[in-house]
Amino acid sequence: MQYPTIEDAIGRTPLVVLQRIGAADNAKRGNVILGKLEGNNPAGSVKDRPALSMIKRAEERGEIKPGDTLIEATSGNTGIALAMAAAIRGYRMVLIMPEDLSIERAQTMKAFGAELLLTPKSGGMEYARDLAENMQREGKGRVLDQFANADNPRVHYETTGPELWDQTGGRITHFVSAMGTTGTITGVSRYLKEKNAEVRIVGAQPNEGSRIPGIRKWPQEYLPKIYDPTTVDELVYVSQDEAEEMCRRLAREEGIFAGISAAGACWVALQIAQQVENATIVFVVCDRGDRYLSTGVFPA
Fold it and tell me: Of residues 175 and 207, which shows the higher confidence score?
């Protein structure tokens, strides 16, 4: 008998309906809002999918082999997922992360055996990405580059999109995703649009002055190369306060312990629900709330 490995636990995550938040209005309008629980992946986020995909596809092309050093700039979830995937497949993992991101993320990366380089808060992810590229040029390792690697959206086209279509019985009308690396929204959009061109794809982004871990509006020169703007029908901006309040509401009213960017996507889904009827709206619960405890978003 061949038993499954931890790799086999990635994907096929549950899709659950919101039962209380917005319930009265949704019932009146005939809408359903569903959350895709990507925090159920073994390393705790939607990034488990592209992390393993990027490593396995690079191995298949002969670009890397176990024992090599991998380098990646990350705001957290991709780093955790890559640390897990590197541990599974036998790589040294060096992760570069701005110093102001949550302590839980850094501790989790180290638990998987990754080495962590912290960069100045003032430089943001742009500085971290530049440093990763410089290290690769100096021969210190291979950058997988989640921002430009086609194996990132590819795995969402191959897995996340089909799962959503099957789980909703093809009834999905709107897909909402927080936009960071943009791999999720790009890959899922390509699949869903092939199945039904009328499915509306909505990206959640932070409004001016808001800092929401996991989502952001990139300067043009740092816009992820994998991002295809034609795959996104609409961008909706959410404030930090709105996302954090929704984070607390999801835990208290729905029992969904989600991260702040996931809550931002939920807030956007609720805004959409107020404008449409007979819709099936899916948002990505991209990670779990336990990696945000030190941020103060949840009351002590």
Answer: 175
